[in-house]
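Internal tracking record. Fields below are filled automatically when a chain is submitted to the structure queue. Please do not edit lines marked as system-generated. If the sequence contains nonstandard residues, flag them in the REMARKS field before resubmitting.
Queue: standard
Priority: normal
Entity type: single polypeptide chain
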Amino acid sequence: MAVDIPRCLADSEQDVTLRNGVSVRVRAIRPDDEPRLMALCRRLSPRTVYQRFFSVRRLLPEEAHAYANVDYRHRMALVAEVGGDRGPELIGVARYGPSDDGATADIGLVVADDWQRLGLGSLLLEEILRAGEQRGVHEFSADVLTENYRVLRLLARRTAITRRTVASGVTSVLFGRRADTALEVTRHGTSWAPARKSNPWKPRPEAPMP
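SYSTEM-GENERATED OUTPUT FOLLOWS
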């Protein structure tokens, strides 16, 4: 099935080499990613699900449909995928969408358990913030479980935090993109190169979002 996404997004696909030497493709989400979002959420450990959704739950089909269909401006999502035995698999998703009050863009980020601690979370965060800036979004927000020290450290290292509040076990953070984050990600061992013109993986992320 042909999928209509903006040409600029198709050209921005990139191949990423993680710290373990594996090549990963980072690209804009597509409507046909809906079943791959469902499969990704089924592979997450209960702990990762809890940290992402604030409860142990699974993604509903109607949620996957909504998350796979974005307008690429006010609602944007990037995915990381690798080749699997049955076709490409999603291993990470980063997205933003309007906050409840419309003043900021809420960020959502998840990386599959087997692909954590390889620099992918840092890269996806940087890329979704950069995508937002390119679309005129400069202030972002995120709600993080206060016990989720890894994500809070990630935000502290990779973003410019302007406000942080804690209530009922949830840390709410307002932040912007740091200009030097891309350099820092590269220095810590994650590199990326321009995507090939032809995609070898043919087409076949916040309530909380994946």
